User: Which sequence fits this backbone?
């Protein structure tokens, strides 16, 4: 089993004919992902990468039976693209776009709140279920199928963790890059919960960073859940000075609980196996799976 995406997912690409959309859609198709078409307003009826182009998401849902969308739309229009996909009945929306204004994301969050839709991102690397579907910008060759789930705020550290897990002769069920913006669709806790409830996932790697409460919320939920499924945790940003945004827009220490040290303490107290360096992730996973 997997979460979010698999070989049966019918995927469309919003911003299909742009340079980013073209490049990454090509890579996704090459990987074997079931891309059923794309959306570029005004270019409906054309074909691109041997797939149909639609003017609207609604058309793509009706004609290609799309249920999953990946968004490569510039920041100014990305919020509208997310809401259009939700309105059309897409079930999983993965938004890669970086730099969407926070006020736009507040609107999106309110809009999708009561809809049957799961938003991943924005400003994320996407989601991959190895050997089945790569819906994102991650290097597919790094990921091999297995029994370890990954939840990460960082794109690069997602690939790093996967590489280390694979080098321990293990593999990945699904890796979810949740994004590093202040307002995202799916929280660390929600992503961890999905993997806890997945029968094929025996261990979870949770990669967080300074700023916000997401990792603390996930850790507290994990402790309360009583789950025996092990989690290996890493928090990036140990040396970040307080008050300065580091890399991601959401990675800013606002209070005493936002620091890497405070988060690591909460994780440890919740029964999570915390590593101090990303270089230790693979070994720790192998150790806890014993």
Assistant:
């Amino acid at each position: 089993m997997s979460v979010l995406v698999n070989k049966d997912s019918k995927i469309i690409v919003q911003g299909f004919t742009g340079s980013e959309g073209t490049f990454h859609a090509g890579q996704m198709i090459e990987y074997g992902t079931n891309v059923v078409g794309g959306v570029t307003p005004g270019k409906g009826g054309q074909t691109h990468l041997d797939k149909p182009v639609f003017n609207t998401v609604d058309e793509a849902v009706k004609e290609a039976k799309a249920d999953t969308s990946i968004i490569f739309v510039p920041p100014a229009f990305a919020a509208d693209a997310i809401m259009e996909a939700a309105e059309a009945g897409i079930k999983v929306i993965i938004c890669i776009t970086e730099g969407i204004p926070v006020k736009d994301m507040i609107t999106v969050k309110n809009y999708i709140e009561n809809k049957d839709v799961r938003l991943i991102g924005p400003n994320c690397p996407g989601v991959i279920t190895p050997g089945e579907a790569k819906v994102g910008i991650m290097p597919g060759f790094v990921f091999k199928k297995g029994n370890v789930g990954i939840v990460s705020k960082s794109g690069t550290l997602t690939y790093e963790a996967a590489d280390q897990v694979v080098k321990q002769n293990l593999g990945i069920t699904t890796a979810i890059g949740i994004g590093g913006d202040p307002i995202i669709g799916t929280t660390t806790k929600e992503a961890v919960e999905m993997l806890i409830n997945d029968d094929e996932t025996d261990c979870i790697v949770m990669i967080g960073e300074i700023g916000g409460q997401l990792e603390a919320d996930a850790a507290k939920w994990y402790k309360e859940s009583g789950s025996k499924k092990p989690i290996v945790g890493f928090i990036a940003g140990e040396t970040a000075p307080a008050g300065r945004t580091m890399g991601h827009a959401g990675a800013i220490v606002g209070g005493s609980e936002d620091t890497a040290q405070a988060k690591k303490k909460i994780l440890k107290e919740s029964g999570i196996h915390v590593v101090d360096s990303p270089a230790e992730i693979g070994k720790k996973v192998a150790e806890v799976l014993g």
In short: The CA atoms of residues 43 and 55 lie 6 Å apart. The first strand starts at residue 11 and ends at 14. The chain has a mean pLDDT of 95. The domain at 138-289 is CATH 3.40.50.261 (Rossmann fold).
